[in-house]
Specification:
heterodimer, A: 196 residues, mainly alpha, 9 helices, 72% helix, 6% strand, elongated, B: 291 residues, alpha+beta, five-stranded antiparallel β-sheet, 5 helices
C-alpha cells in the first residue's frame, strides 16, 4: 500500500469536530476545569464588588468595606451561600464535560446540574431571608434603600430549572445513535493506528 | 443538529409559558390607550395643623384609581423624619389593598407631639455651608402579579429628601453638666422646618416648656436671637442616671409607651416613636461638649 492510500484512509477515519463532541474526552474535561476555576473566581469577585457597591455606592475603599460585611460571610449569610452554593454547579459542569453527548454520564450530570441550580437559588433566597435588601445603590437618586421580595422569583426560577431537566434527557435521546457511531469510528481509527 | 435536544428545549419553553401565561394575562391590563389610566392618584391632600402649638396633626387624604385587573396588595406608605437610627414615623399606612379596577380611598390621621420633632434641633451636624439637613423619608412597598401563591413583583423602596435648615451661627453648641446628667444644645435657625415648628409654638404662647417623666426632664426654650429663632433643647436626669435611662425604665414598665407631662397634660408617644425619642436623647448625650 502506498503512503498516499494510508493517509487517505486515515483522513476518512479521523473524527470530525461534531463527532468529537459525541465521545468521551479527558482533554475537554481539563479545559472545562480550568474554565470552571476562572468562572468561579470571577463569580466571587463579582459578588464582592456588587455587595460592596450596594452598601456604599462606590468602590473607593473596597478592602475595608468587605470587613464591614462580615455578617454576609458567615454560614447562612448571603455571600457565604452564594460562594458555597455555586461550587457544586461548577464541579458538576467540569466533570460532566468528560462525557460525550449521548452517554448516560452526560445526561446524569446535566440533570444533576439543573438540581444544583435549584438548590443554589433556594440557598441564596434563604440567606437573604426571603427579601433581598439593596441599600443605597442609587444614592444620587435619593433612593435610600430598595427591597425586593425573592419568594415569587425563587419559585419561578425553580420551575425553570426543574423543567430544564428535560433538556439533557432530550439531548441523550437525540444523540444516542450518533454517539454509538462515533465510538465505533474512534475504535476503528485506533485499530488502524495499531496495525500500522 | 440534535433533534432530541431541540424538542426538549421547545417542551421546556412550552411548560414555562403554560404555567405562567394565565398569571401574566390576568395581571396585565388590556385595552390601555393611556398609561395614566392604569394608575392614578387623585385628590391628594396633606394637611398639617396644630391646635395648641404642642401637637402636630397630620391629615392625609387621597384617592387611588387603579385600572389594573388584579388587586395591588400589601401596600405600605410611610413618611418618617430623621436619620436611620433616630427616625420618627410621622405617617404610616400599612397593608392596604388597592382594589382592581376601582378607586380606593386612603385616609390617614396621626398626631405627634411637637416637642418630639423639635428634638431634631439637637441632632445632626451643621454642614460647611451652614445648613442642618433633616432627612424626610418616604417608604413605599407593594406586591403584584400573583403566581403560585407568591408575588412575582414584591418590592419596597425608600426615597430620601433632605430638608435643609439654615443655621446662622454655623454650629450646635453642646453644654454638659455632671451633677444632674444635663445635656443642653443651642442652635439658631433661620428658615426651614424647625423654624416653622418653633414659630408655631411661640405664637401659641409656648416659649419655655419643661416636660417631665419621673426625675427626667426634657426642656425646650425658644428665644429670639436678633430676628432669628434660637432653640435650646435640654435633657437632664439624676446624678447617676441620664434622662434617657429614666425614660427607658418608664417605657419598659408602661407597655413600651412614653408619656411626658407638661402643665398638667400628658403627651404620649406611640411605641415606635417612644423608642426613637429615647434614641434621640441618647444621641444627644453622645455629643461632645463644646461650650
Amino acid at each position: 500500500m502506498s503512503d498516499e492510500y494510508i493517509m487517505a484512509k486515515r483522513d476518512m477515519l479521523e473524527l470530525t469536530k461534531e463527532e468529537w463532541k459525541l465521545v468521551n474526552s479527558k482533554k475537554r474535561m481539563v479545559g472545562a476545569i480550568i474554565w470552571g476555576i476562572l468562572e468561579y473566581i470571577l463569580i466571587i469577585v463579582l459578588v464582592f464588588v456588587v455587595s460592596v457597591y450596594s452598601q456604599k455606592g462606590n468602590l473607593d475603599t473596597i478592602l475595608e468595606d468587605l470587613q464591614g460585611l462580615t455578617e454576609w460571610f458567615r454560614p447562612g449569610g448571603m455571600i457565604f451561600n452564594a460562594i458555597i452554593g455555586f461550587l457544586p454547579i461548577i464541579i458538576l459542569g467540569s466533570i460532566g464535560a468528560y462525557f460525550g453527548s449521548g452517554t448516560y454520564g452526560k445526561m446524569l450530570f446535566g440533570i444533576a446540574r439543573c438540581i444544583a441550580f435549584v438548590i443554589f437559588i433556594n440557598l441564596l433566597v434563604n440567606g437573604a431571608t426571603t427579601s433581598l435588601e439593596v441599600p443605597s445603590v442609587f444614592q444620587q437618586m435619593n433612593l435610600e434603600n430598595l427591597t425586593i421580595g425573592m419568594e415569587g422569583l425563587r419559585k419561578f426560577l425553580t420551575l425553570i430549572f426543574l423543567t430544564s431537566i428535560l433538556i439533557p434527557i432530550g439531548e441523550f435521546c437525540g444523540a444516542r445513535k450518533p454517539h454509538k457511531r462515533a465510538v465505533e469510528k474512534l475504535e476503528a481509527f485506533k485499530a488502524s493506528k495499531v496495525s500500522e | 443538529m440534535n433533534s432530541g435536544k431541540l424538542i426538549a428545549q421547545i417542551a421546556v419553553l412550552a411548560i414555562i409559558v403554560y404555567c405562567c401565561y394565565g398569571a401574566f394575562v390576568s395581571a396585565v391590563p388590556s385595552n390601555v390607550s393611556d398609561l395614566g389610566e392604569v394608575f392614578q392618584v387623585e385628590d391628594m391632600n396633606m394637611n398639617t395643623s396644630s391646635s395648641d402649638g404642642l401637637t402636630f396633626d397630620l391629615d392625609f387624604q387621597g384617592k387611588v384609581k387603579s385600572g389594573l385587573p388584579q388587586d395591588v396588595e400589601g401596600v405600605c406608605l410611610q413618611i418618617a423624619i430623621g436619620e436611620k437610627d433616630t427616625r420618627m414615623v410621622l405617617a404610616d399606612i400599612s397593608n392596604l389593598t388597592i382594589k382592581a379596577n376601582a378607586t380606593t380611598d386612603i385616609v390617614f390621621h396621626k398626631s405627634i407631639p411637637v416637642f418630639a420633632l423639635m428634638s431634631y434641633a439637637a441632632l445632626g451636624e451643621v454642614s460647611d455651608d451652614g445648613k442642618l439637613n433633616i432627612p424626610m423619608c418616604t417608604t413605599v412597598a407593594f406586591k403584584y402579579l400573583k403566581w403560585q401563591g407568591e408575588y412575582l413583583i414584591d418590592m419596597g423602596f425608600t426615597i430620601r429628601s433632605d430638608m435643609p435648615v439654615d443655621v446662622p451661627g454655623g454650629e450646635i453648641k453642646v453644654h454638659k453638666e455632671a451633677a444632674n446628667n444635663l445635656v443642653k444644645t443651642d442652635i439658631v435657625v433661620d428658615k426651614g422646618v424647625l423654624d416653622d415648628f418653633a414659630t408655631g409654638m411661640n405664637s401659641s404662647g409656648v416659649d419655655n416648656m419643661v416636660l417631665t417623666c419621673g426625675d427626667a426632664e426634657f426642656g425646650i426654650d425658644l428665644q429670639k436671637v436678633g430676628d432669628k429663632m434660637g432653640i435650646s433643647i435640654s435633657a437632664s436626669g439624676t446624678s447617676d442616671k441620664t434622662a434617657a435611662d429614666i425614660m427607658q425604665e418608664y417605657m419598659d414598665a408602661n407597655g413600651g409607651k412614653l408619656t411626658l407631662t407638661y402643665g398638667g397634660n400628658d403627651y404620649t408617644l406611640d411605641e415606635d416613636n417612644s423608642a426613637t425619642f429615647i434614641d434621640i436623647l441618647n444621641a444627644m448625650y453622645g455629643k461632645e461638649a463644646n461650650a
